[in-house]
């Protein structure tokens, strides 16, 4: 690189950094910025897992939608909650021919999961307990994430 081009590049960089620093100072001195209120906001996630054996995989999609609706309906029993289905999935695998299988007609192993976001986070544990109590064979996992929200 030629010395003139390098000097010009350094000058532009210095100019940019000084303008950026001035903008930061100006923002910090702005009364509107100082009045900005920030708070920590918690969002909870609930993951509902289940697995089992079935013989009719054609009805699995409808069964999954019914379980999602059941889980959503349970939120009404807990109190003020905003529950959003972030997603759900199911996986199907052919069952082995093991004669010790408890379900003789089951040709497939199925695992399912439902991912929900829940606010306010303080009501997530009663909701998770209710899901676990009503879901035969369900495993429930809860995660709470806090992040700063500025208004």
Report strand %: 35-45%
Q: What is the chains' assembly state?
A: single chain
CATH topology of the largest domain: Alpha-Beta Plaits
Strand order of the largest sheet: 2-3-1-4
The helix-and-strand class reads alpha+beta
- Which range best describes the helical content: under 10%, 10-25%, 25-40%, 40-55%, 55-70% or over 70%? 40-55%
Q: Sheet with the most strands?
A: 4 strands, antiparallel
Helix and strand run: HHEHEEHE
Radius of gyration: 27 Å
CATH hierarchy: architecture of the largest domain: 2-Layer Sandwich
End-to-end C-alpha gap: 47 Å
**Poorly predicted residue ranges:** 8-25
Number of domains: 2
What is the count of β-strands?
4
CATH class of the largest domain reads: Alpha Beta
Q: Indicate the overall shape.
A: elongated
- Quote the average pLDDT: 78
Q: Helical region count? A: 4
What this model shows, in words?
With 151 residues, this protein is of the alpha+beta class. The chain folds into two domains: 3-34; 38-150, Alpha-Beta Plaits. It is built from four helices and four strands, in the order ααβαββαβ. The protein has helices at residues 3-29, 31-34, 60-78, 124-134; strands at residues 38-54, 82-94, 108-119, 139-150. A four-stranded antiparallel sheet has the order 2-3-1-4, covered by helices on one side. Helix 3 crosses helix 4 (124-134). Residues 8-25 have low confidence and may be disordered.
Summarize the entry for a quick read.
This protein has four helices and four strands. It is of the alpha+beta class and 151 residues long.
């Amino acid at each position: 690189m030629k010395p003139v081009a390098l000097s010009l590049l350094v000058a532009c960089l210095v100019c940019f950094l000084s303008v950026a620093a001035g903008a930061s100072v100006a923002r910090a001195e702005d009364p509107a910025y100082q009045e900005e209120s920030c708070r920590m906001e918690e969002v909870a996630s609930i993951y509902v897992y289940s697995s089992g054996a079935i013989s009719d995989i054609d009805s699995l999609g409808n069964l999954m939608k019914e379980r999602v609706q059941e889980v959503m309906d349970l939120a009404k029993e807990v109190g003020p909650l905003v529950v959003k289905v972030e997603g759900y999935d199911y996986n199907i695998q052919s069952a082995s021919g093991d004669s010790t299988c408890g379900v003789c007609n089951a040709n497939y192993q199925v695992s399912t999961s439902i991912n929900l976001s829940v606010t306010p986070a303080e009501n997530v544990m009663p909701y998770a307990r209710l899901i676990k109590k009503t879901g035969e064979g369900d495993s429930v996992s809860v995660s709470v994430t806090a992040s700063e929200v500025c208004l």
